């Protein structure tokens, strides 16, 4: 650790957090101890904190007070994590419909937040400083798994308007002290990619953070120019907000000469999970409970894919209890070689609404097509767009291009999934354009289901 990193991680950042009324330093230390607890002890802590959360919401949150009264429930009845199924699954629509009845009575000092709305359902919500502190602490802990720390040089390739518009003078000075540099992820054409590569060379970051699709485009551009960035001392690239495709992970790690760590979280649900150097996508289990449910909101078997539902144990002021994230994934029941007993997600498959509408009206999740396309050698990116019930377009960037038989195999696969009435158009492109916010979506359906 450099002298400046030590000063920031041990002095400037803790002071910054204390001035903001955050307890993230204390929380991080506690999390770094509890990550080594056995699974039974972690589950006991979750149950204890679940009961404490439910005592608060049952007395202070009008919606849950009514629910507990109508159902004859008490917090003491939740003696295990399985008892969570007594409560309904919640989502953005339900929370918005309740209005002020979702906010705890007497809550003060809360910070207003809003989701990005990329799912089409923006949500305004409120967080306490305690909840924010835990999110910061969990992310800080997971950062340190990779032998990097706050104060090490960090280059952030990002496209969210929430962050990019917040770059006022105070934040700019803070980022300079923390040695964090924000680079917009929009408009990454040839010159734009060259500019990012140049910044990486000059800044020499210890860690990268950003959309995996954007980092992969930078890596491919560098490889095309026969540039290797592995001599710059980059330790890790943290990727988030998109499904981390195997081809993206591969090119980032190869060109940057670093580890690649997947991250999963949301402003509303919290900092859910991050990958350790041994490959485990560990859940922040000390203050989060993650369930994976089927289409009828019943738990799936361990290892099976379903809808990810999160209970955040740190936020009684504006609770997220059995909250549907809108994503699909699976839990990994096996232990991680790193020795941490924190539960793991084995895979993430993107948004639940990333899919296509079959000719007969059935919904087909995008993962069915993802598994087909990821087998293409030299794959860089793809995007499947359904314009009409009977018309699907596939944008494909690959080097070298697929063999001649691929298009027919693709058409056959789409016909099997959607029906022979659906026409498939394959377009080979140099680059697949991202969405306006800089993110990449693999599957886009523009057809209203009926």
From TrEMBL:
This is Phenylacetate-CoA ligase. GO terms for molecular function: ligase activity. Gene3D superfamilies: N-terminal domain of ligase-like. It comes from the Bacteria. Keywords: Ligase.
């Amino acid at each position: 650790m450099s002298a400046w990193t030590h000063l920031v991680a041990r002095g400037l950042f803790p002071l910054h957090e204390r001035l903001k009324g955050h307890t993230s330093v204390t929380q991080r230390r506690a999390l770094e101890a509890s990550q080594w607890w056995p699974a039974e002890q972690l589950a006991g802590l979750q149950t204890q904190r679940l009961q404490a959360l439910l005592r608060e919401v049952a007395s202070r949150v009008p919606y849950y007070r009514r629910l507990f009264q109508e159902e004859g429930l008490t917090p003491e009845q939740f003696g295990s994590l399985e008892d969570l199924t007594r409560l309904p699954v919640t989502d953005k629509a339900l929370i918005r419909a309740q209005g002020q009845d979702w906010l705890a009575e007497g809550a003060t000092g809360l910070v207003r937040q809003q989701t990005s709305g990329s799912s089409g359902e923006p949500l305004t919500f409120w967080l306490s400083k305690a909840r924010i502190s835990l999110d910061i602490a969990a992310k800080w802990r997971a950062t340190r798994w990779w032998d990097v720390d706050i104060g090490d040089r960090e280059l952030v390739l990002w496209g969210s308007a929430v962050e990019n518009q917040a770059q006022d003078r105070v934040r700019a000075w803070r980022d300079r002290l923390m040695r964090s540099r924000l680079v917009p992820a929009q408009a990454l054409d040839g010159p734009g990619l060259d500019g990012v590569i140049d910044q990486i060379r000059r800044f020499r970051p210890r860690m990268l953070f950003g959309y995996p699709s954007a980092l992969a485009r930078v890596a491919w551009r560098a490889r095309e120019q026969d540039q290797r960035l592995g001599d710059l001392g980059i330790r890790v690239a943290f990727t988030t907000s998109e499904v981390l495709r195997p081809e993206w992970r591969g090119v980032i790690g190869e060109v940057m000469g670093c580890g690649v760590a997947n991250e999963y979280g949301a402003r509303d649900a919290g900092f859910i999970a991050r990958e350790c150097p041994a490959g485990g996508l560990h859940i922040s289990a000390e203050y989060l409970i993650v369930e994976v449910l089927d289409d009828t909101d019943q738990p799936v078997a361990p290892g099976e894919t379903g809808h990810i539902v999160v209970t955040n144990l740190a936020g009684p002021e504006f609770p997220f209890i059995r909250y549907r994230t809108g994503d699909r994934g699976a839990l990994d029941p096996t232990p991680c070689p790193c020795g941490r007993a924190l539960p793991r997600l084995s895979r993430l498959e993107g948004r639940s609404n990333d899919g296509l509408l079959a000719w007969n009206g059935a919904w087909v999740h995008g993962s069915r097509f993802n598994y087909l396309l990821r087998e293409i050698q030299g794959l860089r990116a793809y995007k499947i767009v359904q314009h009409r019930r009977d018309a699907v377009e596939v944008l494909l960037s690959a080097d070298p291009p697929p063999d001649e038989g691929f298009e027919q195999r693709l058409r056959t696969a789409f016909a099997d999934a959607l029906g022979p009435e659906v026409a498939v158009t394959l377009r080979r492109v140099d680059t697949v354009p991202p969405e306006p916010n800089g993110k990449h979506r693999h599957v886009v359906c523009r057809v209203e289901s009926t």
